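## Example pair
The file below holds two records. Each record gives the amino-acid sequence first, followed by its structure token line.
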Amino acid sequence: MRQPDQRPVARRRAGVKGRGRALAVAAVVSIGLSACTTGGAGGGADGATSTIRTAINATPTTFTPWMVQNRDDYTVSRLLFHTLVRRGADNSIVPALATSWESTPTTAQLTLRDDATCADGTPITAGVVKDSLDAMATAEVSVFREIVFGPGTPTISADDQANTVTIALAQPWLDLLQGLSLEATGIVCPAGLADQDGLRTGAVEGAFSGPYVLAEQSPGVSYTLALRDDFTAWPEYSDPPLQGEPAQTLEVAVVGNDSSRANALLTGSMDIADINTEDMTRFDGQEGYTTHRLPYLALYVLFNERPGSVFADEAARRAVVQALSRDALNSAASGGLGELAVTFSHAAVPCANTDASVLIPQDVAAARGVLSGRTEPVKVLGMDVIGPQGAANSYVAEALREAGAAVELNNVDVSTWSTTGATEPGAWDLTVFPAINAGGTMYGALSPIVGPATEDGGANWSGVRHEDVLAMVDEAMRQPDEQARCGVYQQIQENLIGAAHVMPLSYSPEQSIARPGFSINAYNNQVDFSTMRIGTGAQG
């Protein structure tokens, strides 16, 4: 039974010398149609460089895997910490630190590879993996804990002789293997577990289990990662396989402006980068550049429904939904390049709703009758990368003003948005939420809306547990029949959308771009930054 949550550099090749709670940019996999084009090689193809230059949007909020909050955290964690498995083509589970596994709805036993080591040379044994997963499962703060393990605390055991780790869940949870592919489950080595304050800042030598170590950092400016000479435990992707050479050095700049990224790619001062705005069209027909255009973010309006909030009232939430146009927001967010959504998960997440009739139709006159009678301003929290300079958030603010509402818009960078939304519930009333859901599960999509609130260590920004929905999730997790399980999830989606707890907007595209001679692979319409390579065209 589900219980309420009670938890109130000096550069080195094999280590590091010398932050975070919030969000839950939920785990909603962007598995729809993608566009991938490849041109000729150049740049790094001749082996003239051993460095890849790339970018993140903002300073990572933490280097502790189970405390990751946003896309930039995920990117850095994927490079520094290895996971037991990955998700490959067609949602398949791919070996990484684990070579094989057996699972049931309540247990999983994973057999580990025998050649993996930490950055300080410590062997990654079953005991090391157990200790790291235990740290995540019992952490005071981890928005991904329930996404991975389900309700309750799992029992994790290790057999070093057999090189196996066994996870026994508190109740049936069919999403466990997908959850173990998430960056939040990256294995932290003993040195990191022994110094968790240093782990958060990236300052612990030997904490890393992944291919790279953090060699230098200038927060807010740049990060330098160095390839481990002894790393051989690459994920066993096959469709497409890994090709080319990993960079000896990754230079990761903090560049939040997509136009600046596009300029850098076109002038040769950046090698691989992601772009979310209309700047992606500047690469149409560019010879030699490889692009993956992916339906990356599921955008939806999410409300702060905590007691005392204006949006604890369904009539007020419904008025906001009636005031907004999905077409207009899609235009503001991506120049109309996105696809309109009919649910809060990505369209290819199993059991995603496809029926547009569940949506509340736009009715500005009806909205005005509710919103114009309120004197307190609606506090809109916006992330400034959703459209140029946060244009999607500006649209929401203006549409609400046209419907008679007083509005305060706080358009901020990714890191500030994550921290404010998850730790300062009094600072916002609604936000355009950009869901990633790297695990591609329906509960991952639900996690910012239901379950443990962020102040209780969970992923739920709304602040209301929705016990009725959680009971239905438990029912779905006990259903061996997919059709029956999807019937439960369909009812959940209809209930949440129909009561205006969430307003589906669009699937905002992202284009991953590699200039000639560099590559990065995409699986299930999601790039894996550990696959960045020199010397071949991108695949996926």
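Second record, same layout:
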Amino acid sequence: MTTSAFISYILTSRGLISLVRLAMTGGLSLRGASRRSNLGGEIATPSARYDKEKRLCVTTHMNEYIKLTSLVVTANIKEMMSRLPLFPLTAEVDRQGHLIIGGCDTVELAAEFGTPLYLFDELSLRGKCAEFKTEFGQRYADTTVIYACKAFINRALALILKEEELGLDVVSAGELSIAQSVGFPLDRVYFHGNNKSAEEIRLALEWHIGRIVVDNLHELKMLGEIAEELGYIPDILLRLSPGVDPHTHQYIATGTIDSKFGLPLSSGEEAVATARSAPNLNLVGLHFHIGSLIFEIEPYEQAIELILNFAAEMKPKYDFELKELNVGGGFAIQYTLDSPAPPASAYAEAITAKIISQCQELKLPLPRLVVEPGRAIVGQAGVALYKVGAIKDIPGIRRYVSVDGGMADNIRPALYGAKYVAVVANKMQEGNTEKVTIAGKFCESGDILIKDINLPPVSAGDIIAIPDCGAYCLPQASNFNASLKPAIVLVREGKAHLIRRRETFDDLTRCDLI
């Protein structure tokens, strides 16, 4: 790229976003086919398959850019651009000052489909699938990437994951049924859960899913009995709790000793002995999942060392060969500007290096590696759109901006104290001059989406866009206050497809019998 072409690129909103991403991550690879920007410059866009790659070399042209900075980048644009990297990879701003995602004007989407509205950027979804497959696969050839459905799943997403050749981690017969409804290859499905019912286990065995991840001794006994009754031998993993603190919120820490999930290592030997002696069970490996939203690498390394040491101890005692090691997920994403998350490459490097070195030390053959990203695949791809309604000023205390959604569609701030940022989608070129608190419409004082955020002057009818809403918002949505669950659209290259309609009043009483 010539210096003049680079400058033309930087003058586009996408160019500025890319520069901010570079500053935040230490380097950005923009992969994909090139297209024309609104200003005529050739720019790189994300590709669904990551089949091409262009690397932006900022250092070569930085001196030219610095000369222009004071002229073309105002303080308002700087602040606005600092938030855009938290949005999907296709996020940009048009000449009207509207937020564009997947080539679609979010203000127009809100008008067409109503609000609250959740949108998913297809290129960001597919790009994350490819990133995890590439980063782990190039370091450890025998790697399987499985998407954790609890983050969010519906038929449209299941079809995308099927096309991207990921597996699925399901935790209920409901999630399993969604996979089955779109013809997802069930041999790529892993069934988790700490309290699977006999009916769920029977269904999983009848559908011959890929793996059942056994969580406790009660389940192990029940699974053996049902497998014998059906005359089927399933491949299973044992979920162990390594007793590692992942340094995350207590509600999403799952690998500690005091957890409802998994077998403590003190009970692991009994489980291995039982599984190895069961004629209708095939124990192929071990699993652990230390938690969710884990920003540190060390807990994974600690857990791998403990689990592999355990596997080495079990090998001579029970002739147990570790063919598969499932390290779970929990990979973090960045929700706010002050909480950067490690890239997939950092997790991949630490996890694969530790497995290789530890297996060499213990003289264990390398097992198949399974990773289970959920939030890291879908989180950044999702955006929530709300319409502003009432605005309440309490002089000297707070300015409340109420929107038409809240804790019924996103319980995370109330449940976990989760932090988000936001932009006014129809005022992207205006300065963030007012400090406001974005409140939901539901009858709880705790229904606050974002507390004390700087935004442009907000008026009724404005559209608020909140990034990083792809994971754990919709799956935990409710009909609190008899509200209607929002519609969902999938956007790509200027086209928006409705993949779930908004609920109606009839839906609220559809299951009532009186």
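Notes on the second record: The longest helix spans residues 298-318. DSSP finds 16 helices and 25 strands in the chain.
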